[in-house]
Write a structure and sequence with these properties.
32% of the residues lie in helices and 21% in strands. It starts with a helix and ends with a helix. It is an alpha+beta fold. Strand 3 and strand 4 form a beta hairpin.
Length: 181
């Protein structure tokens, strides 16, 4: 069985046994399953407490007005902070956005008036409630040297705080507008 042909036969037999074992898998005894008229066990999609990646209630939470009033809006983070972050920093080119984790990463942005300077911003939404400490902004700044190489440089601490304040102000405006409907 140490030859290449022997290994192939052993691999084929292992796969065949594994596939045959899959035929006997049953959901009997597993929570949140129902028995169909055909005799199969399937997940109970009508159970509001079933476990899903979106939490109790499933994907319908994304459109649930009750959760939106709490500020969650079906997101893993506060919806007002999330939307305010995207709205406030709309002038930056987005690189990545994770609404469940609450992270928005923007690509490098060069202001038109300072071609030798660029910024990269990352926003962290830290809470499902609209709170002053529910958002954190990280700003990276680079300057271009005479030979065209970008190098990291310090950012004034007030820059990140000013962006956080702008996001919080916009989030409050959005919430007030939402409640006024």
């Amino acid at each position: 069985m140490r030859t290449a042909g022997g290994r192939r036969i052993l691999t084929v037999l292992t796969v065949a046994v594994a596939l045959a074992a899959c035929d006997n898998i049953s959901y009997d005894g597993v929570e949140d399953t129902i028995r169909t008229p055909e005799g199969r066990s399937e997940p109970d999609i009508d159970d509001p407490n079933r476990q899903t990646v979106f939490g109790p209630g499933g994907i319908s939470n994304l459109f649930d007005r009750g959760r939106a009033e709490d500020g969650g809006g079906g997101l893993g983070v506060n919806a007002f902070l999330w939307r305010a972050s995207l709205d406030t920093l709309a002038f930056l080119p987005p690189l990545s956005a994770d609404p469940l984790g609450g992270i928005v990463i923007y690509d490098w942005y060069t202001p038109p008036e300072t071609a030798g300077e660029r910024f990269k911003v990352t926003v962290y939404i830290l809470d499902t409630r609209l709170r002053a400490d529910g958002v954190r902004v990280q700003v990276n700044r680079q300057l271009r040297s005479a030979d065209g190489v970008w190098y990291e440089t310090a950012v004034v601490e007030e820059t990140a705080r000013a962006l956080e304040d702008a996001i919080l102000t916009r989030a409050r405006q959005m919430r007030i507008a939402y409640l006024g409907q």
